[in-house]
Amino acid sequence: MKLISWNVNGARACASKGALEWIKQAKPDFIGFQEVKAKAEQLPKDFSQLGFNTLYVNSAKRAGYSGVATLSNFKSEIFNARFFDDDEGRVIEHVFGNTHLFNIYFPNGQSGDERLAFKMDFYAKFLAHIKALAQAGKSVIFCGDVNTAHREIDLARPKQNEDVSGFLPIERAWIDDVIAAGFVDTFRLVRGDEKDRYSWWSYRAGARQRNVGWRIDYFFVSSDLASKVKNADILADITGSDHCPVMLEIDL
């Protein structure tokens, strides 16, 4: 099964650039979009014409903000957040067989202490939720824009960003806790300590052209699925957003 995650930073803007055409050739079984900034009826027809069986959208109450959407070719039960009051349209959970697959746009904490606290609360409640699932014998996959780079290797300028949300010690420690709980960063599982591999670049100062980026988009799996991971990669050649897609191939 091929799974893709992509923060499109506005579904309408991304589609207007013709940036979805590569998906037809890639032929994933699932693609999770974050930050779609649209309600279901506002999504461009490009999304419904990509050849998937199911399109599902969880949009924010606030217009033009946040929101996630998934396209899938398998049958599943679909839920919004069951661990958090999700007025911002951040979570879609697919349940099929013994597997829980999450597409999540995690909060950004850069606008101040209140939003950082919101982010950390979201982090804590989500980790408690997936730990409970794993302890109940469920398999878990989660993907999306986590909005935190884990290690110094995961961003181009770690020293300059030590005091910036997205690389704060408390945020990085949460990813440590995710891994300590038995969840596996599939990119590092497959790619080891490959350097200069990023999934987000600022629009400023030609950051993408100079590869001054951050790896903040992930696929994690529960430990029982680690041996089933066949490939994981960052699709940095795909443009249309300030993020690029990330990919997981797994036997399910």
From TrEMBL:
<feature type="domain" description="Endonuclease/exonuclease/phosphatase">
    <location>
        <begin position="4"/>
        <end position="243"/>
    </location>
</feature>
<keyword id="KW-0460">Magnesium</keyword>
<comment type="similarity">
    <text>Belongs to the DNA repair enzymes AP/ExoA family.</text>
</comment>
<dbReference type="InterPro" id="IPR036691">
    <property type="entry name" value="Endo/exonu/phosph_ase_sf"/>
</dbReference>
<dbReference type="InterPro" id="IPR005135">
    <property type="entry name" value="Endo/exonuclease/phosphatase"/>
</dbReference>
<keyword id="KW-0378">Hydrolase</keyword>
<dbReference type="Pfam" id="PF03372">
    <property type="entry name" value="Exo_endo_phos"/>
</dbReference>
<keyword id="KW-0479">Metal-binding</keyword>
<dbReference type="InterPro" id="IPR004808">
    <property type="entry name" value="AP_endonuc_1"/>
</dbReference>
<protein>
    <submittedName>
        <fullName>Exodeoxyribonuclease III</fullName>
    </submittedName>
</protein>
